[in-house]
Specification:
It is built from 10 helices and 17 strands. Helix 8 packs across helix 10. Pfam families: Peptidase_M42 (PF05343).
């Protein structure tokens, strides 16, 4: 990954974008790709739709969701402490002791999630699980009135943690799910722009919104795009760390290549064609079985209008829906290579019917 790409990735990951409030990250995405694509379209939902070769008849859609999990202000008590609800899903225990960034009309407000000191806990309290009802955010306010000068009910917030490179190949951040996928969409579109004379199809790269609330942005954008085929790029559960069950998750490791899938959500013609491309270009890959719908934007693409050929490519991810999601740079690079090769070699039409 070159320095320009990594700088974009860091900016994308650190830009707050809880579901429904994706604007800061969407702006980073749009600013990065707008000079390279033929069309950049936004909609009322917040999706960013980028297009190459728009006049071609066959439409191939790429989707990576740009929203992340987060919190929202639901109540401010008389002493100025803030109570929240989750945007998306996370383990409440992960929130204790975290710093947060609250997104307000006046700018960012910083706070911390506190808890009673362990010295004052009874043995029963120490053994109890953490619940959202017992979590509060402290912004240093002295009263409800003081807090209300800075935050409002409905303001969203994210955990305030930075991007970090752990090794030459491994990086860690909140919101890898799925800004890493949106990053790949942007990088693919920029690389394909340099090969536009070779494209025989129209390629539509979408940074979708509100995936964490039910694939909502992919539903609306795929309806607008009306693709013949598409690939969703999302993160997948790595099983190469303690306390995982490979019998349930499969054997998925960081650094071993793109995670391809087999199952009802995956068009078998597209699945076999991608495998053929990976083998031809000597791109490593891993396979995961999907006995049900994948729970990703691939669902929405597959069910768009009268149906489209869809598949999912996942980035192996440790510690999903935590502030320390970890992925491999080489896995992302290989996913980009695979998709660029597949689309560059795609004929003007392909029959994906089964």
């Amino acid at each position: 990954m070159n320095k320009t790409s990594e700088k974009f990735l860091q900016q994308l990951l650190e830009a707050p974008s809880p579901s429904g409030f994706e604007q800061p990250a969407a702006k980073v995405f749009r600013d990065y790709v707008k000079k390279d694509v033929d069309q950049l379209i936004t909609d009322a939902h917040g999706n960013t739709i980028t297009v190459l070769n728009p006049k071609a008849k066959f439409k191939f859609m790429l989707a990576g969701h740009i929203d992340e999990i987060g919190l929202m202000v639901t109540h401010i008590d008389k002493d100025g402490y803030i109570y929240t609800a989750q945007v998306g899903g996370m383990d409440p225990a992960l929130l204790i002791g975290q710093r947060v960034k609250i997104l307000t009309e006046k700018g960012n407000v910083f706070g911390v999630i506190g808890r009673k000191a362990i010295h004052h806990m009874t043995p029963d309290e120490r053994g109890k699980g953490v619940k959202m009802d017992n979590i509060w955010v402290d912004i240093g306010a002295d009263s409800k009135e003081d807090a209300q000068k800075r935050v409002e009910i409905g303001d969203p917030m994210v955990i305030d943690v930075p991007y970090r490179r752990m090794t030459d190949d491994k990086i860690v951040s909140r919101a890898m799910d799925d800004k890493a996928g949106a990053f790949i969409v942007a990088e693919v579109m920029r690389r394909l722009a340099k090969k536009k004379k070779d494209l025989k199809i129209s390629v539509i790269g979408v940074a979708t919104v509100q995936e964490e609330l039910g694939l909502r942005g992919a539903i609306t954008s795929s309806y607008s795009v009306n693709p013949d085929a598409g690939i969703a790029i999302d993160v997948g559960f790595a099983s190469d760390h303690p306390d995982t069950d490979k019998k349930k998750l499969g054997d998925l490791k960081l650094g071993e290549g793109p995670n391809l899938h087999r199952g009802a959500n995956i068009n078998p013609v597209l699945e076999k064609a991608l495998l053929k491309t990976a083998k031809k270009h000597k791109i490593p890959y891993q396979i995961t079985a999907e006995a049900r719908a994948t729970g990703t934007d691939a669902n929405a693409i597959q069910l768009c209008r009268g149906g489209a050929a869809a598949t999912l490519i996942s980035i192996p991810n440790r510690y999903m829906h935590t502030p320390v999601e970890m992925i491999s740079i080489s896995d992302m690079d290989n996913i980009i290579k695979l998709i660029v090769a597949y689309i560059t070699e795609h004929p003007a039409n392909r029959d994906y019917r089964i």
